[in-house]
Amino acid sequence: MDRPLNFLHITTFYPPYSFGGDAIYVYRLCHALGDAGHEVDVVHCVDSYHLLHPDPPRLEFAPHPRVRRHELRSRLGSLSPLLTYQTGRPLLKGRQLREILFSRHYDVVHFHNISLLGPKILTLKPAGRPIKLYTAHEHWLICPTHVLWKFNRAPCDRPQCLACTLRAWRPPQLWRYTRLLEHCAGHVDQFLSPSRFSAGMHASRGFPHPLAPLPYFTELRDEDWSAPGPRPHPRPYFLFVGRLEAIKGLHTLLPLWSQVKGADLLVAGAGTQAGQLRAMAAGDARIHFLGEQSQKQLGSLYCHAVACIVPSITYETFGIVSIEAFARKTPVIVRDLGALPEVVEESGGGFVFRTDRELLEAIEAVLASPGLRNELGERGYEAFRRNWSPEAHLKRYMEIIEATAKRKYGKAPWKAAAEIHAARP
Question: Per the confidence metrics, is the pTM higher than 0.85?
């Protein structure tokens, strides 16, 4: 780039007021852009966080000197996201948004999870001549429940959205039965997807705009594999990292652990099913629930694990846990569903399973052979460096930004400004 760019990222959840891997990705992206010298603003909705989680956030996240965080709050609290859920419009937050949008001229406006900000937010016009990006971290564009988890029991095979929404104990969203999303999506210059699978799923469900694949990335700092923290558990162990919800599939793993000899299972995460899952595992002293963990704590957990198991039972859009494991030279064992196999196929850094027997065979193989474990970990790490490191991600991200700007304006506006400045005597 000829000069540092001004970025505006808009999302419902952002650390520390967040849940799940997509918010962690946005945090990492904002900080990586700041490290590269760009100026970054990020807008997120604290009311939406407290609608789902009344207590203050438990974990702290370090700020960045080039990243300004703007918290959207309403005097009416949770009523604001509830109204947005029904209308598709960022009600009670208009004045705050306008103040932010005109606080500086932006080159790039990047939308992420806008589920409780509403599709109408895509039509906002910030100062400057920005290009607009949208990353489909979930399947919200084509699924009212976001995750294509049909009737609360299985991956969605064909749309039955109204019945499925009611079965999930959610009120139908009135705006989904209008052309609001179709109209608002036309204001986005480029849609992005973390995986080829998710891009294909959007196309197959009738979303009219193409999604360019932009896989996630992760980073290594003081939790790098070359200097991990102390071993967090005395016995060999496999690791599960994720929200404790049905779609993450931990309940399919727990009953099998009695058949695993010589290793424990460590579970890092929190969620609405934590109590139920703890009760399910109560008879096995080799299963340990650690609760929510900081990124630094997770680094050591990944480093010392025999392997990381990802047993999700619905369509993940990427599987960020896998690359977090690869960044620590730890292999993965993933279910053959959604985007999860893509990362293993591109890296050769683990196993893909379809049945319980295949899962147990993969566990036994990597546990029995430290050499195999290390070989898979090295493959995963090399693929991480090529495909999912901050450097690889920012290179692809900037290529997409420049290509989108050229398609929209004929040239990147910031390049034109730099050329004019350089030509002045």
Answer: yes
